[in-house]
Amino acid sequence: MATPSPSPASYKEYEIRKRNPDPKSAVLLVIDMQNYFSSMAKPILHSINTTMDLCRRASIPVIFTRHCHKSPSDYGMLGEWWDNDLILDGTRKAELMPDLRRESGDLVVEKNTYSAFRGTRLEEYLVERGVTEVIVTGVMTNLCCETTAREAFVRGFRVFFSTDATATSAADLHESTL
């Protein structure tokens, strides 16, 4: 028998380490806020833009990721799992959502798997700049956000995971990841 999903207020019981990101060593990762994911991304767009504004005021850099595939040679297991229904580079679906408040200096990391670290040089970029903390926002909570957060953690970064600036296709998947 399934256990009822926790209410958002119950996340507090898991907040056992009270700490805020250090603006001197943090970056904000905005994961895959692309047209392809607009149905789940639009409801959190205001929270994403607000988080970006807060981070920028604290001098925390903002880094976007964009999931896309350039050819069948980079489909990997995702091609098999998603029956080759993938986000193809150069299409409107692959573009970042136009209502994101991007700035000219924001880095955009292109990736072709769930992790923002695998095959992207993101880790080297962060280390070169003295970054030790990442704040994870975007979509999909249970896939690209969670995979990026876990990989950041195992690579030695302190991870902060947003509850209101992440989303996925179903509430139970979102809540189970949080």
Task: Explain how this protein is built.
Helices cover 29% and strands 19% of the residues. It is built from 6 helices and 5 strands. The protein has helices at 38-41, 45-57, 76-81, 122-128, 141-154, 171-177, and strands spanning 26-31, 62-67, 107-111, 133-139, 158-167. The model is unreliable at 1-6 (pLDDT under 50).
Major sheet description: 5 strands, parallel
Which stretches are poorly predicted, pLDDT < 50 over at least 5 residues?
Answer: 1-6
The helicity comes to 25-40%
- Average pLDDT over all residues: 84
Number of strands: 5
Q: Helical region count? A: 6
Q: What letter string, H or E per element, gives the SSE order?
A: EHHEHEHEHEH
Shape: globular
Strand content: 15-25%
SS-based class = alpha/beta
Q: If you compute it from the alpha carbons, what radius of gyration comes out, rounded to the nearest whole angstrom? A: 16 Å
Strand order of the largest sheet: 3-2-1-4-5
The termini sit apart by: 21 Å
